[in-house]
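Sample pair:
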Amino acid sequence: MKQRSFLMLLLVGLMSVILAACSGGSDEGSKDKETPEGTEKQPVEGGDLVIAVLSDAQSLDPAGSNDSPSSVVQANIYETLVTRNDENELEPGLAESWEAIDELTWEFKLREGVKFHDGTDFNAEAVKANLERILNPDVASPRLFLYEMVTDVTVVDDYTVQIKTEYPFAPLLAHLSHNGGGIVSPAVIEEDLAAMADGKLAGTIINQKPVGTGFFKFESWNPDDKIKLVRNDEYWGDKPHVDTVTFQVSPESATRNADLERGFVQITDPVQPVEVNSINESNFGKVFQKPSSSLSYIGFNTQKAPFDDARVRQAISMLVDRQEIIDGIYEGFGVEARGPIAPGIFGHNDDLPLIEKDVEKAKQLLADAGYADGFKTTIWTNDSDQRTDTAIMLQHVLKEVNIDVEIEQLEWGAYLAKTSAGEHDMFILGWSNPPGDADYGLYPLFHSSQFGEAGNRTFYKNDKVDALLDEGRREADQEKRNDIYKEAQELIVEDAPMIFIHHQEYLLGVSNDITGFDIDTSGIYKLQNVQFVE
């Protein structure tokens, strides 16, 4: 195990909010899963795969949410026109091919012979119905920003569709790979729109019976408990090997680990960094590790005093040692973030200025802003151990400048709702980048049109940044786009609406009883090739 810094020793002693994280220990009744010498486990068909997850999904409607716990489930039910591999290359999905007709129009040739789980045919009309639903202002989709530049969706024939945009939009194909573009059965969309006309909320019907073309079909959802999917035996491509997949909500790390050891679950997400060695040294599983395109950050509500003053935000940023957090709380898993875009993602900039720790300068900035004697505030976190520990660390550090911080821990659904509504002072959250483009890592987080649920929970507004992000969307030349995003990020870092902590490394526990598991760089599980072994 990596050497732990004094920070974690400090966290143990701070009892304002603390969560115990212990690894699954040995149990006399547990099964020894070591393979006898001279034999090798072989993959088998069937079985019930159980994944223990920290938080429940908020919506099973691709247009209805933009949070990771929802996305990892949706990605198994629905498919997108375009997919993206780990090299950030675009590949065919429900669209077999595409071409640019002109600078505003893309034409897609769709895969034939695909059916939705309800037996409805997948075709160009289904694509048109899905995109027009996301664009429908009455649906009020938090994923509207992905496609708001689309002006027309034209059915050319049953398996050819054209998408026209208001302006040349370079990342359109990347956005179509996001699971917010998951294609829902048009029959269910029609039923959902009818329910909306009767006064029900958008997505009510889709949440009750999510129907896509994916390799798993929805079976049941007991909120705050479990979501169960079953294999789609009529799937058009390579069928999955397991019979069912259950996403079991399990907030306590110790419970997840114990269930992994006893064989009750086969995958746990997340593994706490301090638990990695104990699981890797066990006889029941290993920790799956993968660098991510995600950002972890501490956000300020820039619309509320004192965080409406950039000097206060800058001062607090100067009091935080990012590497201390990475080493002390995340056990060194992940890389320090200079800005919002992770390495390997278009728009990443290694030359961004890094706000260094400087206590004296921070004190001067606070004095200049009128807060030489400090102030009282709150920081919110959900039930993530690392986020809670980060909040405790920040609480301690800010005492140096007489800032009294109260920590509030909220349930995931309430956390998203309240931060979307702007009820917070400071908060801790993350953002992944499934399309692999700077537009997705910047526009929803920092454009003033995206306040709240769409992504801008810091309620940050800078007219120059807005103009640059709009320009970046309209510029077709990738080199020029990169320069635009470089300038935008420099302004954002200077304004400090958030403290960029790190680009995390995903850590998941995987049982020795399965093989073939993978995730992508945005944290979406790849379950199609998972098999039990005997």
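The radius of gyration is 24 Å.
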